[in-house]
Amino acid sequence: MSRVRAVVHGRVQGVGFRAATRERLGVLGLDGEAANLPDGTVEVVATGRPDALGDLVAWLRDGPTPGRVSGVDVERSGDA
């Protein structure tokens, strides 16, 4: 099982970013969660197939509307 932890920077709190991310996790067949952090970022932790995790990271970098992503810090473990 592979794992990704991503911290998403930008206008990502209060704009439906977590809900959109949870939906995307389901679409990609991943287990995971998205949570607001006190500094205004969103932490996404997901486990699953490496290719699906790569798709998730690419999707996070694009930033779901109406949020605005300015950067994504990614930590990978396993084959991710």
Written overview of the protein:
Helix content is 30%, strand content 41%. The chain has 80 residues and is an alpha+beta fold. The longest helix is centred in the C-terminal third of the chain and has 13 residues, at 50-62. The model has no long low-confidence stretch (mean pLDDT 94).
Task: Spell out the blueprint of helices and strands.
Blueprint: E1 2-11, H1 17-27, E2 31-36, E3 42-48, H2 50-62, E4 68-77
> Which class in CATH terms?
Alpha Beta
**Beta-strand percent range:** 35-45%
CATH topology: Alpha-Beta Plaits
Structural class computed from helices and strand pairing: alpha+beta
Number of strands: 4
CATH 2nd-level architecture: 2-Layer Sandwich
**What's the domain count?**
1
Distance between the termini: 9 Å
Individual helix count: 2
Q: Which word captures the global form? A: globular
Unreliable sequence segments: none
How big is the Rg?
11 Å
Return the string of H and E elements. Answer: EHEEHE
**Largest sheet properties:** 4 strands, antiparallel
- Average pLDDT over all residues: 94
Strand arrangement within the widest β-sheet reads 2-3-1-4
The helix fraction, in percent, is 25-40%
Short characterization:
With 80 residues, the chain is an alpha+beta fold.
Characteristics of this structure?
80 residues, Alpha-Beta Plaits, 4-stranded antiparallel β-sheet, 2 helices, 30% helix, globular
